[in-house]
Design goal:
This protein is of the alpha/beta class and 173 residues long. 19% of the residues lie in helices and 31% in strands. It contains five helices and ten strands. The strands form three sheets. Strands 7-8-9-10 form a four-stranded parallel sheet, with no helix packed on it. Helix 5 links the parallel strand 8 and strand 9. The longest helix is centred in the middle third of the chain and has 8 residues. The two termini are 29 Å apart. The relative contact order is 0.17.
Length: 173
């Protein structure tokens, strides 16, 4: 599903269900022939908390790059197609702040998927501090992923846009 003009969402149910911590990623194998004689691997963050994934499917977000091996391959998939992946990998995950300090997240484009998974986790909801801010880098309003999601969980979003169409709040440049 295309969620912005340049970002694709892929929802999948793995043959073998696996547990992951919000912030971890999987590696997708781009088959041989897509990029040459050998297959290539591309890393994608699991974009929703594990407790959501077991109910609604695992989800990754891909910024489409014309000619990009991973994005071209994943964009070509049809409902019911399969792909090979391994994981989860990565050490980036939510850690409860010391002394209830404030949290500032910084993300751009599909990098916000990691933050979405963290903010959606039950651990974050149970232990997050009062003040939470997300500095979100995007080209324009059309590129904002998850509009309203972070705000509904008490996270103040400050958009930082390079080509805003109608910037009413946030930073430009």
């Amino acid at each position: 599903e295309w969620v912005t003009p340049t970002v694709l969402s892929v929802v999948f149910n793995p043959a073998i269900r696996f547990h992951y911590e919000s912030g971890q990623f999987i590696t997708v194998l781009v088959p041989p022939g897509q990029t040459g004689e050998e297959g290539e691997r591309r890393c994608y963050t699991l974009a929703i908390a594990h407790e959501e994934a077991v109910v609604s499917g695992y989800r990754i977000f891909i910024r489409f790059v014309p000619g990009g091996a991973g994005s071209e391959f994943l964009a070509s998939l049809k409902r019911g197609d399969t792909f090979l992946a391994s994981g989860p990998f990565g050490e980036f995950h939510y850690r409860k702040p010391v002394d209830n300090r404030n949290i500032v997240f910084i993300a751009a484009s599909t990098g916000v998927a990691t933050i979405r998974a963290i903010v959606g986790s039950s651990e974050f909801m149970a232990t997050s501090p009062k003040k939470k801010i997300l500095l979100l880098g995007v080209r324009s309003e059309q590129e904002i992923l998850f509009p309203g999601y972070f705000e509904s969980r008490g996270v103040e979003v400050i958009p930082c846009m390079t080509r805003p169409e109608n910037l009413t709040y946030g930073l430009w440049g």
